[in-house]
# Entry
Amino acid sequence: MPKRRLSARLSALLATLVLGTAAPLLSSTPASATATASCSSYPSWAAGRSYATGDIVRYTDGRAYIAEHDNPGYDPTISTWYWEPYACDDGGSTNPSGFVVSEAQFNQMFPNRNSFYTYSGLRAALSAYPGFANTGSGTVRKQEAAAFLANVSHETGGLVYVVEQNTANYPHYCDWNQPYGCPAGQSAYYGRGPIQLSWNFNYKAAGDALGIDLLNNPGLVQSDASVAWKTGLWYWNTQSGPGSMTPHNAMVNGAGFGQTIRSINGSLECDGRNPAQVQSRVDAYQRFVGLLGTSAGGNLYC
# Structure
């Protein structure tokens, strides 16, 4: 449940200050310009190298990105205010056709889902983190998509719940020690969305990363499906929570599904604390990789 998970994360998140340091970013759709050059013909992106507006680079996933604003070498898959995916001839090395999960497969995974959680909303959110389920081999991409959706399924009862059900928790998610306070009201930052975003500092950090003012408008996470999905992808791709790595890195670097659990709710579930909850997540993951026609890999438990 959101209160248990996010309360347990509070001290770790405040200690690392990860959530308050993101540069202002903006999600965007892929570049509409038509490119004839091969993706491999562009210079490789390098962290810390200065780029001017219009520069085109090839990222580590083989895809090309164009600089929308001058920047000192921000990561194209995170800093989407500064970079935008750029269409080029990749010779089939990437997956330009879209998400590895079809709408039919999505509906099979979530037969009783709330109508709020649309497949189109998920697809629209993918532009915020182009590396998600689009890094590595076809097997790795499917495993990451299944891992994200399995954890999401566990967090929301199969994509049934859009908001935290225990309203008594609502006033607890305001940390007045933050300099920006709780401008939307003390009870405004309760759990919402596929990974149940909670706390004012989480709304601030996610909003900064996505170019959306969620601190002042937290209700967008329960009224706009694309925004809701983006907050889930924000946590998945950028936050390690009580773990040692982001869930995205856990899947693409071979650490295994168990490490995604640790990063999401490890302080309350892993190391034998709540094996039933861990098993629920693993069961969902194994079902979903089966639907996608791939293997689960190793290290399923935490």
In short: Residues 1-36, 90-97 have pLDDT under 50 and may be disordered.
